[in-house]
Amino acid sequence: MKAQIYNRPHSHYFTKNENPEGNMKSIQEERLRVSLQHRKDIENIVFDVFPDIELPPTLIMQCKRELEDMIRRLRCTGNDEFCDELKTIIDKY
After folding, report:
1. What is the reported pTM?
2. Region annotation Disordered: residue ranges (predicted)?
3. Nearest CA to 90 among 72, 63, 54?
4. Per-residue model confidence (pLDDT) at position 21
């Protein structure tokens, strides 16, 4: 009997020389970057439509905590420059 070779469904994402874990890390970084950009886009739309809106302090603190948690996770990927930029923005509030 001949052995059958089954292709893994995600095998086309990796070349022979790529590290799958490294590739997954870059995918996670990209998802986080898109998520942050999406939140910023929403914030800009809200403030454009309602320029005089005042967010409750509890909501601001909750968002700040969530962003700081995301920054801690992102720092593990070695993207310190981006993290420092985000931290500067957060500290304004």
Report:
1. 0.36
2. 1-22
3. 63
4. 56
